[in-house]
Amino acid sequence: MARRAVILAGGLGTRLRPYTVVLPKPLMPVGDRPVLDIVVRQLRTRQFDQVTIATGYLAELIEAFFRDGDAYGIPIDYYREHEPLGTVGALGLIDGLDEDFLVMNGDILTDLDYAQLLADHQKSDAIATIATRTTKVQISLGVLDFADEDDATLLTNYFEKPNIEYESSMGVYCFDPRVKEFIAPGERLDFPDLMLRLVHEGEKVRAWRSNDFWLDIGRPEDYEQAQDDIEALQDRLIPPE
């Protein structure tokens, strides 16, 4: 069975301005190479057969950089958005998605096994699989619990700068080809809306929990963290030539 990946790389990258005024976010360098260069090399190493990059903002720069994928040893084609379609709307217009396929954002660094994720999805009866991880966030405020009693609101608990854990999307998904039935061609659609639409229609959406390294470079502080970490993580993230 063929392994196909769709990389979503059309966003404006507004949180990383002014850097993204001249470079699309997936071409932002981490160490000595763009983040999307790392992703494509990882997919080749995991023996994916085809990569489709959905472009939009500064599309010509991404297309000129990767061309047809010959330099990477993996065929690369493109779907260019001519108007913004949200984070997932482009899937409704990409041809040839006839087998289960992987979808991922083009601005993440992770060492999860894309091939294993896709294989696990193919063995399931779910229409969609979301790669997830537990994320811990510290609230930099005092958090209060109150209860209403008669004419007073009384304190019941007080947490000083608590840590909150939640399960978050890693920006990596697998889909059954039937998912296109739920995306109207040209519809502007974001991932949360699609997932909730699938659940509402009775489809199974499953989690694939991961403890792998993961970093979204979409915020300046995360991009700076990636620059600090890349030397130590290079062997984990960047496949050998």
Automatic annotation (TrEMBL):
Top-level taxon of origin: Bacteria
Which Pfam family name is an example for this entry?
NTP_transferase
Q: Which residues form the Nucleotidyl transferase domain?
A: 5-231
Coiled-coil stretches, from where to where? none
Q: Which SUPFAM superfamilies match?
A: Nucleotide-diphospho-sugar transferases
Q: Which GO terms describe its molecular function?
A: transferase activity
> Keywords assigned by UniProt?
Transferase
Transmembrane annotation, as ranges = none
Protein's UniProt name: NTP transferase domain-containing protein
The major lineage groups are: Bacteria, Bacillati, Actinomycetota, Thermoleophilia, Solirubrobacterales
